[in-house]
Amino acid sequence: MVYTSSQLLIFEEFIAHYSNNTRYELADGELIDMEPTGPHETVAGKLASKLSIELERQGHPWFIPRTCIVRPFTDAATARRPDVVVLDETALVNEPLWEREPVITLGTSIKLILEVVSTNWETDYARKVEEYALLGIPEYWIVDYRGLGGVAFIGRPKQPTITVCQLVGEDYVQQQYRLGKLIESRMLPRLAFKLDDVLPR
Fold first, then answer.
1. Would strands 103-104 and 2-3 be described as parallel, antiparallel, or unpaired?
2. How many Cβ atoms sit within 10 Å of the Cβ of residue 192?
3. For position 126, what pLDDT does the model report?
4. Helix, strand, coil distribution of the chain in percent, nearest 5
5. What is the pLDDT of residues 71-82, one digit of tens each?
6. Where are the domains positioned within the chain?
7. Which ranges of the chain have pLDDT less than 50?
8. I want to staple 125 with a disulfide (CB 3.0 to 4.6 A). Which of 24, 115, 153, 192 is the partner?
9. Tell me, what's the pLDDT at 147?
10. What radius of gyration do the chain's Cα atoms show?
11. Is the pTM of this model over 0.85?
12. 114 - beta bridge partners?
């Protein structure tokens, strides 16, 4: 993750200049180059495929957009680009920007959000946990396929881990899944796959 500019941007400037460039996020006005790698995109793609199959099988009116920006706070210059986000199509009528831009501002539009951990693991484990909980997103997965997170987050010895955060009240309750363990999701209770299934070959 690289900070690319010393000049702060407002949210509207970010949308005008960077909405079509999926490399960038905005955090408190700072433009951030996400620097995606091939293995990172492999894991994100496999996760999206597994979830898409399950969404179709369960018949939910939910889908995974090709691109999407999540604006966690209307009063802050922050714009997140989740690696995978599951949207409720029936809720999008309430989204004020959706007809013009793929921007989500309401937590009720999001059923599940996934972030694949890279070198900016602190953001995924700390800041985004707070942002997504405040937005009211029911489930947030932190997919740490290389075991990069600090021991305070994934334990010792550090190893590949998926942390499933489920919203209870205003806070997330977290459950960790390591290699060989079936992942449990409250949003998709019949989901049946392991972290092993989405790792790069």
1. unpaired
2. 11
3. 94
4. 30, 25, 45
5. 998 888 999 999
6. 37-198
7. none
8. 153
9. 96
10. 16
11. yes
12. 84, 141
